[in-house]
User: Which sequence fits this backbone?
C-alpha cells in the first residue's frame, strides 16, 4: 500500500464525534453554571462545542462535573479555546506535560510537588503578561475533606456597580501588573516559592493594562486590577494610587459579586480570566490537595 493510502485509511478510521446530551444549569449566584452529562474524554461535535463556548461567555465559569479525563485530554480540550501558556515556574510543570501546572500543597521527599500557595491573593491568571489569559481550566485530582474552596468575583458586576466617584477616577487609567508584586511576600509567608532564576525574571517583566477592559467576546466592561498582580496606577502619586487600588480591590470582592466553589471529586472548572478574579480559600496544612491547571492565552486588553 502506498503511504498516502495508508494515511487515508487512518483518517477514514477515526470515528466522527457523536453528539452528547447534556444540561447547562446556571448556579444561583452572580457567576457560573454547572454542566451535567457531558464527557470531555470524548471529542465534542461542533454544535456541542459551540453550546459550551456560549455557556462560558454567558456564565463566565463552567463546572464540568465528574470528568474522568487524562492530562492529555485536559490539554486537548483546553486547546480548542486557544493556545496554551507555559507557566514560568517550570519546577511545577507536570512531568511530560509542560502545559499543566500542578497546584498542590503536597510535599514529597521534602520537596513541594506543586505550587502550594497558588491564589493566596485575588488575581486574574497571568495578567502580568502582554497577552494575559483568556481562561484557565482546573481539574481536581485529590481533594481535602474540609476547606480548599476557590472563590470567584464577577468583575463585570464590579465595574457596573462602581460608585460614580470611583468610576470617574478610573476613566482612561492604566495600571502596572507584575508577577513579582507579591512574590517576596509569599516567599516570607511559606516554603512554596523557589527563588527565580535570571531567566525566569526576564520572562515576567512588568506590563501595563487598562484598569477597565472591554471583554473581546461579550463586549462588556470589566475592572481589570487585582491585589495579586497590580502594583500601581500609571502617572498617579504613589499614595493616591495605593488608596484608589485599595478601594477598587475592596469593591471588587463584595459578597454579592462572589461565587464560592466547593470542589467535588473529578470537577473540571473552566473560568474566564477576562471577567473574573479568583482566590484560594485555603486548605488546612495537614490535608492533601492537588489539582492540574491549563491556561489559555488571550489577547491584548483594551
Ligand atoms: C490557580 C489558582 C486557586 C485554588 O490555580 O490559578 O489560583 O483554589 N488556584 O487552587
Ligand atoms: Mn489563579
Assistant:
Amino acid at each position: 500500500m502506498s503511504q498516502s493510502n495508508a494515511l487515508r485509511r487512518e483518517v477514514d478510521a477515526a470515528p466522527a464525534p457523536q453528539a452528547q446530551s447534556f444540561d447547562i444549569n446556571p448556579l444561583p449566584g452572580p457567576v457560573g453554571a454547572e454542566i451535567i452529562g457531558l464527557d470531555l474524554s470524548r471529542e465534542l461535535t461542533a454544535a456541542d462545542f459551540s453550546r459550551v463556548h456560549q455557556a462560558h461567555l454567558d456564565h463566565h465559569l463552567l463546572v464540568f462535573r465528574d470528568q474522568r479525563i487524562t492530562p492529555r485530554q485536559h490539554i486537548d480540550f483546553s486547546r480548542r479555546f486557544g493556545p496554551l501558556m507555559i507557566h514560568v515556574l517550570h519546577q511545577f510543570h507536570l512531568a511530560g506535560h509542560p502545559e499543566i501546572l500542578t497546584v498542590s500543597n503536597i510535599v514529597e521527599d521534602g520537596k513541594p510537588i506543586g505550587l502550594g500557595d497558588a491564589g493566596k491573593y485575588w488575581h486574574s491568571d497571568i495578567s502580568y503578561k502582554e497577552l494575559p489569559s483568556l481562561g484557565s481550566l482546573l481539574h481536581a485530582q485529590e481533594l481535602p475533606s474540609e476547606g480548599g474552596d476557590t472563590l470567584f468575583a464577577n468583575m463585570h458586576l464590579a465595574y457596573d456597580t462602581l460608585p460614580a466617584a470611583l468610576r470617574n477616577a478610573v476613566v482612561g487609567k492604566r495600571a502596572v501588573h507584575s508577577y513579582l508584586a507579591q512574590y517576596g511576600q509569599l516567599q516570607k509567608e511559606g516554603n512554596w516559592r523557589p527563588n527565580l532564576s535570571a531567566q525566569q525574571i526576564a520572562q515576567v517583566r512588568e506590563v501595563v493594562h487598562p484598569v477597565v477592559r472591554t471583554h473581546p467576546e461579550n463586549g462588556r466592561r470589566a475592572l481589570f486590577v487585582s491585589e495579586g498582580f497590580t502594583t500601581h496606577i500609571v502617572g498617579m502619586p504613589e499614595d493616591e494610587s495605593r488608596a484608589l487600588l485599595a478601594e477598587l480591590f475592596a469593591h471588587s470582592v463584595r459578597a454579592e459579586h462572589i461565587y464560592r466553589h466547593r470542589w467535588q471529586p473529578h470537577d473540571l472548572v473552566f473560568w474566564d480570566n477576562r471577567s473574573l478574579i479568583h482566590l484560594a480559600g485555603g486548605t488546612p496544612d495537614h490535608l492533601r490537595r492537588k489539582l492540574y491547571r491549563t491556561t489559555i492565552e488571550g489577547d491584548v486588553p483594551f
